[in-house]
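re: ur question from the group chat, yeah i did fold both. here u go
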Amino acid sequence: AVIHNYARYLATHAPDWPDKDWRGMRAMENLPTLFWLYRRTGDEIVLQAAQSIQANCFDWTHYFVDFPWDSEAILKNKIPHNWGPIGLTAHVVNVAMAVKYPGVWYQQSQEDSFKEAVYEGLKNLDRHHGQVAGRFSGDEHISGTRPTQGTELCAVVELMYSLENLIQVLGDPILADRLEQLAYNANPGTCTDDYWAHQYDQQANQVLCTNAPREWSTNGDSSNLYGLEPNFGCCTANMHQGWPKFVAHMWMATPDRGLAAVTYGPSVVSAKVANGVDARIEEKTLYPFQGDIQLTISVSEPAAFPLYLRIPVWAEGAVISIGDTRLKPQPGSFCAVEREWKTGDVIQLTLPMVLRTETRYNDAVSILRGPLYYSLKIEEEWKEFKRHHDTLPVIDWEIYPKSAWNYGLILDRTNPDLSIQVETQAIGEKPFATATAPVVLKVKGKKIPAWGLVNNSAGPAPISPVKSEEAVEELTLIPYGSTRLRITEFPTISE
C-alpha cells in the first residue's frame, strides 16, 4: 500500500526531477519498483508515474548514444570532475546505475531505440573507459582506460544490478557473461577475503595500497586502502548488495513457464513451473574455478517444461549430458532443454575452460580462463593504518609489495596454453583467499627494470613487445579476485 500510494502521488503531482540534481540523475531508479508493482496490480496510474519520471529526468538514452566523454575528451582534459550538473553525468556511480535505464524503459515504450541505447552505451564505455573484469574506470568520475585508473566498489555493485535488470528484460546471455566477470573478479578483488575491509577504488595494476595521492580524477589519498570506509562511507553501505542480488538473479523464470540458469555457482532454486508444479533444482559445481556443473531435478509430479542453460561465449566445445542424450550447444546462447522432467533427473553441463588472452592498454595482455582474469601474485606486507574497534578486526590497512611486480610475460598470445601451466587445488573456506587460490597459472617472464612507480601507482606499462636482458623467471598468476596487490595487464617480452 505504501508503494502504491507513492506511485499515485508521483502520477498526480508535478514532476520534480531536475537535471542539475542527484535526484534528476537517478530518478529512473524508481522504475524497477514501479514495474514490479504494475505486474501485481495492473493499475494504469503506475505506468503514468513511470512515464512522468522518464519524460522529466536526465535523458540518459541520448547520452549513451551521443556519448560526450570519449577519448578526445580525456586527451583535452574536458571531462568535468566536479559536482555541477555536467559533472554528475561523468560520475561513475551515476553512469553505472544509468546503464539499465533505457532497457528498463523499453518494457513500457517497446521502442527499439531504447534497447539499442543500452548496447551503444556499453560499447562507448568499454571503448573509452573500459577496464578488465567487465567494469569501466571511475575514481569518482570516468577517467579512461589506463589500468591504474580506479573503479569505485559502489560502481561495481551498481553495474551488477544494472545488468541483472537488463537480463530480465532483454534475455541476452552476453550480458550474463559480463555479470559473472564483475561478480567473480571485480567484486571480490576490491575486498579482503573475509570481507572485513574493502577499497573505495580498485586498480587492474595495483602494486601499492597506501594513504598517498594518485592520479585519480577526484578521489582522495585513502581511496585504495583496504578498510572500514576509506575516502567516504558510500561503498561501506553499498557493497553488501553485490552478492545477495547476484545470487537472487542466478535463476530466472521464463515466459513459457520454465527456468533459466542465468549465471553459475553452487545454488538451489525452488519455483513453480509448467502448470503450477513445484520444482527444485540443486546445482553442484566448483564454478567459477572449474567448468563442471551438475543440476539435479526434483518435482512434485512429472512435468514438461523448458530449462534454459546459458552457454558463455568463451565455452567452445560445451556439452550437455542427460542420461544417454548429449547436446553440443552454441556458445553465446541460452540452450533450451525441453522434456518431461521427473525427480532424480540429472543434467551434466561441461564448460571447457580454455586459456585465452585479451589485448589491453599499450598492447598489454591479460589472461583469462573461464569467467576469471588472472593476475600476478605479489608477496604482501600489511601495515595497520588505523584501528576502529578494540576487539573486532575493523582496521584500515596499507599494503606494500615484498616481491617484484614489474614483469613482462613470455607468451604465445594466440595459443596461451602452450605457454601456461594450469594447477588446481581444493577450494578453501574463503574461496578468494590469496594463499589458497583454487587455480594457479605458471608462466615464464622477465623483469622490465625501467618499469617502476609513478605517483604511487605502477607506471604506464611499456608498449609491447618489450626487450629485456633479465633472467627468465617462473611467475605465479592467481584469480584477480584472490589478489589485493596485482598486475593484470602485462607487457609481453620480445623474442
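okk and heres the other one u asked abt
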Amino acid sequence: MSFIADLHVHSRFSVATSKDMDLPHLHQWAGIKGISLMATGDVTHPTWCREIHESLVPLDCGLFELKPECRLSAEEIGTRVDTGSVHFILSAEISTIYKKGGKVRKVHHLLLLPDLESVSRLNDALERIGNIRSDGRPILGLDSKDLLEIALGVSERILFIPAHAWTPHFSVLGAKSGFDSIEECFEDLTPHIHAVETGLSSDPPMNWRVSALDDYRLLSNSDAHSPSKLGRNANVMETEFSFDGVSRAVMLGEGLLGTLDMYPEEGKYHYDGHRACGRRMSPAETVAHGYRCPDCNALVTVGVMHRVEALADRPAGYEPKGAPSCTHIIPLIEVLSEVLKAGVNTKKVRNVYFDLIRRLGPELFILLEAPLELLEKEGSELIAEGIRRMRCGEVNVTPGYDGEFGKVRLFDPGERSRILKQTSLF
C-alpha cells in the first residue's frame, strides 16, 4: 500500500516544544495532514515512554494504534478528519557530544525501534551512561560509533539514521562539529548505516551531488516541535504497512517512492551568515570575506549549501538514475497566509485552513492532488493559483541563515491585487 510517513518528531518533553506535542494531538494532526505513519519521538524519556505504554496498542505488524478513548474530538481540534489510518512507529533522537580526531563532535541520531522491549533495553543501557530524564532528546558524552554499537546490541532490527545530516552545529556532516564522511564517524560499523536524513535545509537533489552518499537512502522528516509542523518534510512509501516494510524501505530502498520537502532555502541554516548583524551570505561571498562578517568581523555560521559545495563531486542538477522522486511543498497555512495577507497564526487564516480541510480533505491531498478547478470553486482563484505555482516551482525564496528561517513567496508585490482585479473583471 502507498502511504506518507513522518519518522522524526518530538514530544512535549523535548526542549522548545509545544505543550500539545502529546499522542492525541499527534494522532489528530497526522489525520489533518494526511500522514498515515507517525513517529512517537522521544521514547528514551521515561515519562513519555510510560504514556506510550498507557495510550498506544501494539499491533502484530510492529506498529501502534492510539486507544479510542485517548483520541480528540472534532471540537477539540477544530475540524473533523479521518484518523482511522493513522499509526505510530517508535522513535527517538539522541544527541552525542564527544572529542574525536582532535575536534569536538556534536552529532544527532534518529532511531526507529521495532518493539517496546527494545525501548526498555535501550533505555536501561543509556541510563547507565548519562541523564535521559531531563530532556526528550538526551545528550550523552558518547562516541556515535559506540551509540550505534549499543543500539545493535539491543536489537539488530533497530534502524539507526544520522539525523539532519548537514545542520552546522549538530550533525554527522555539519560544518561546525561533523565529519567529512559517514565512514569517518562510524568506522567499521558503517555498513549498519543504511540511510541519512536530509534535514530542513537540504533536500535530496543537494545530496545527489555527493557520490559518497549514493549507497544511502535519503529520508525527509519534519523534526516537528509543534503539531502544525508535521509533514513539512515527509516520505512517500509503497510497501507493507509494518515495521518490517518500513525497514526494507529504509535499508534497501524497496518501496521508498520519494520524499516531500519544503524548499531547502527556507531552512534556517541553508545559507551562511551572521544573524546578529542581519548578514546573509552565499558560499562565494563567505569565501571572499574570509569567512567573517563584513559588518563586525565575527566568524560567520557556515550553512548547509556551503558544506554541500565543499563535499560535492558532481554539478548542481545531477540526478542519479532511478532515484526516488523529490516533491517540493509549501505548508497550506503559509499559502493561505500570503493569499489572505495575514499571519499564519491569525484566526482569519486558521478558519480558512480548517474550512478547506473539512470540505476537501487532508492538507497533503490539497497541496498535491486536488484539481485546481476544485480549489478555485471551494477556495478562491488566488488559492488555486498559489498552489499551482507551488506545484510548478514558480516561487521566490529568500534563503535562511544562521538560525533565521528563509521566506518563500508565491506572489510578487502588487501581483496579488492584479490577479484579483483580472478575475473580477472576467
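fwiw on the second one: The chain has a mean pLDDT of 95. Residues 347-360 form the longest helix (14 residues). idk if thats what u expected
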